[in-house]
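Data availability (excerpt). The following record was deposited with the supplementary files.
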Amino acid sequence: MTRVHRFFSAAIVFLTAFAAGAAEVNFNAAGDLGTSASSSNFNFSSAATPWIAEANGVGAGGTRGLTLINSGGNDVSFTYKGTDSNFDFSGFGASITTSILLAKDTAITGSTDRMFDLGLVPAVDSFISGANVAAVRFRSTGGNNSTLQFRNANADVGSPSTSFSLNPANFYRLTFTATNVNGTNINLAASIDDMGTTGTSLVNAGIFDLGTTMVSNSSFATDSSLFAGFRVRNENNGRSVGAFDDFVATGTAGAGSKLPRVFVHPGLLNSAAELSYFSQQAANGVGLWAQGYNTVSTGKDFSNNPLANHAPQAQSTYTAANHWSTPGVARNLIDDARAAYANALMWQVEGDAARAGQARTIINAWSSTLTTVLNSSNNPMSASDSRQDYMLYTSYSWPAMIWTAEILRSDPSSGWTASDTTAFKNLLQNVVRPAAEHPANNLSNNWASWRICYKTADSIFTDDSTRFEQAQQEFRQQVASYIGPDLRGEMQRDLWHSQMGIAPLIATAEMALKQGIDLYSYNNNQLLRAIEYQIPFYLGDYTNWPFASPPNEEVQFDGSTIWSFFEMAYNHYHNRLGLDTPQLDNMLAAVVRQIPNRPYGDVYPADGGRPYRAEDFHRIGYGTLTHAGNPVRYEIIAGFDQNQTLAAQNLTSAGSSSIVVDPTPGQGANYVIRLDASASSISSISSAVDLDAAFDLSFDWRFSSDGQLVLLLDGITLGTLDSPGSGLGRDWFQQFRGEFDLQTLGLSAGAHTLTMELRGTGTRGLWLDNLIVTTSSPAAVPEPSAAALLFGVGAIALRRRRRNA
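Predicted structure:
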């Protein structure tokens, strides 16, 4: 088709916001406040130890609290940074409430400058700058008299309240609440309760109520990472407050202001272009694709029947109480999943509707039959079950079923119907997902990797934005903690399980890439670095073995020691990105594509050694067919990872740019690029790109205030993105997906410069992530070679239905 400048932008955020969380610090334990150098709960406003300190006997009920030392006019502020420190304020109706217990001192003079602020800030550092604080200010006006006044963006709002009197013998709780009204306006409210002489019980509610007032603060109202805290200022060595205790902050998420992600389908292990490409290559007897297809099409099930003739084995109850290697429902599910996926791939290559029908029959049998997962006591699983094997077996058996369904529903000629999709989604939601993502499935080893893999596949198939975003964060955390800086994974346990933990992470990264998310590059390509580090040990070279005891190879029942995710990893890092992968080169040339299928010996009959576990979906055949090469070139993939500088990603910048933590709630392990530009300046990032006649451009973007993002190729404007109006996800990442044709732009294929300019956004700027450029002019598929015809592969082309390139 003719490609033109065509693009769209779709929000990738959620219909329901994250829960905002809660925080409370009572200062009863030494170090609750900490010091500016080291505090588990608070960030301080200065490097020096502040003049506010923890002390015994000054808190509620005579417990520890905070006491103020004469200040001499200095400011000190504390922003809560502990668990659940950031609060989601972006949804309409979202609210955050923070409060603190105080004991009044008698002021020495009538100065109104003796005060403290309680409220919210958009950064975790401090209140001191006051540039964008929403707060209530407590002032002493002499003696026991005090006033309250709202603050917004470093300025008083309205007039101070009338004066009220507080008893120095009592404790009082000052409470401040901010509510996002419509994405532009915020309601502020504040009140004081009398907590009596001990501070432990309510004596008189609302002895002073400042009421509510509405302020305009669009950038603050759409921020999704607010922090609560307090700032103390006591002039002239006087104290308007003598002690503090029981700091509390809670938040409730708003509703309805965020749009769901627009998912790409097919969008799991293969895109539509990739499905078409490997099908043509295999059907025409080309290279590795043909070799892989031969393995898939000649595969057998556990009963030694061809996969093409496999009969479904669905049952109403699923149990994994027995080991996966023994006959039973758990093994039958793996058998069915293998057969379903193989038939879907055979349908793609051959175009034989019977193969699509066979895959559909297998899935529908489970959709219409399975109702219950049983635990190890042979009772229906429950949320209170302790960790059990059914959780792991479910998470690693079902992804292939989902991959199969994704292929079938993406082409109406498969016979897959809307009712098939609904039935399968219901099965996942009601039966499979509760087992695969069970709360007790919380080990951080290979169990977590498979849980993340399942969650990613399920969330994409069911268009579940919330769970997809959660899976991204879980992926990054798993890579950081499981693989670790030493890249060892579970090597000390055995080499098999270490691969078992990496394989589903590779599959997860591949699925995320189809949705425009670059997980592969996380932490400077940590997955690739782990694979390259571990491969020599898999191959028996223990020269640099890092442990005292020799490695356990954990030879499996089919005699293998090697997993089969290597081709997918090689396809991405080497074929797509052109990175050096010497160990993967060695592995693929020497081992993986030559793994013999050995008999099962004492465990299974000598039936040819058919694959028996979920991981075998990527052994020779499956992975070789689907990921032996690229139909498109990935010119840039920039995830702006914490260890990948702009220069390392072939990007140059002008103006103000920095790599920062993703400000999206729940994505704290991700890093993004931030551009800042004043109304009269421009900040930009640029990259040299080598483009074919057509190219796709995708990235995630998020404004925090008014402005415009301009997309340029050699100075020619591709398009502009204006900051959305306040609310409706303005402060949330959205997706840009554009298709462009060089001829339409008056350009030729070759080297060009892609630039993204930020113009006029004040001081808060724009965040960018997942910058991906793909370009392709697919070459004609070669005619079958004589060698391929000898093996009978080329004949497939005669049976294959026509597909679009």
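Summary of structural features: The longest strand covers residues 204-216.
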